Structures are given as structure tokens and as C-alpha cells.
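Weekly structure sync, notes
Attendees: PL (lead), two postdocs, one rotation student
Agenda item 3: pending single-chain targets
PL asked that the sequence for the first pending target be pasted directly into the notes so everyone works from the same version. It is reproduced below exactly as submitted, 189 residues in total.
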Amino acid sequence: ITPGINLMSHMTTGGRVRFRTDSEYVGIRSVMPSITPVTMNGTLICKSGFDLYLNENGKSIFYNNFRPPVDMTDGYESIIKFDCKKMRDITICFPMYNEVSKLYIGLGKGAELARGGEYRHKKPIVFYGSSITQGCSASRTGNTYEAIISRRLDSDYINLGFSGGAKGEENMAKYIASLSMSVFVYDYD
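Predicted structure, written out during the meeting:
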């Protein structure tokens, strides 16, 4: 692989975690070994933030985001509160331009925790491309085109977006061909 793909492969764009809980809040503590500079394209929320979606009646609806502080050095803590205690299906979308080495999720004392809902389409959609695919100009993590399409279809997905690094190399083509997928979308450089 190229040096660009090697650098970008550590970033968590497209990563998600799904679960059910009746907690009145969800808190996170993220550990990020290196922070992408604010001067790079995109917002701080897109580079380092986490989006929280509620999955209700077959639709995934944006609720709020965990906002990183401008002066963070190795991760941050944030909390999102709900107006009442009830069972919710939650999806948390990971940052696009930082490596997340650990994510701790905090729930209220005594809160129930259960496995998140299954996707309607089990085999993921695989996206391969450069900065647009990685999410360079999205305002926040859930606003990449892959995330929007996958939410509407209730499909799992794999984001292989590498800013400036998607060159259609033979090794990458072989890797992609080895993946089990429902659809393949490519937009390489």
C-alpha cells in the first residue's frame, strides 16, 4: 500500500457502535493517540467528534453529537442527556480524521444494556475512494454520503476512503475483492 493509505488506514471513518439502553444519558471517553490539526479541511466535529443517532420505527435519526474541545491533546470526555428513562436503540458514529485507540461508554447506574438492532441488509456496502469518500467536507461524522445512504437502507457499510491515497492499486483491488459485500461503490483518484 502507499504511504497515504498507511496513514489514513488508522483513522476511524465509517466506524460505528450500536446498542440498546434505558440510561438517561450516554457519556464517552475517547483516547486518541494523535490529533489531526485543526488547519486541515473539515470541521473539528467531523475530525474528532462522535454523532449519536436514535433508531426509531425503522429510521435512524440524528440526536446530538459529542463535541471535542478545541484544545484537546489525546482525546476527550463528553455526555449527552435524554429527557427521560426509556429503552432506546443507539448508534454512535466515529470520527473521520483521527485514530480512536479506545472508546469508553458510560451509562447511568443500574441502566440496562443490550445488543443493538441488526441491520436489514447483513452484507455491507463497500465504498472505496479518496477524500470525498473519507468524508473530507462533511460537517459531522454522520453526514458522509456513505453514512446517509446506509442509514436510509438500514445497511451495514465499510468505508475505505483514503484522502489523496485511493489510486486503485493491485493490492487494494485484491483486498476489496476478498470482502463479502452486497454492493461495491468506487470513486478512486
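Discussion points:
- The chain has a mean pLDDT of 89.
- The chain has five helices and eleven strands.
Action: rotation student to compare against the earlier draft before next sync.
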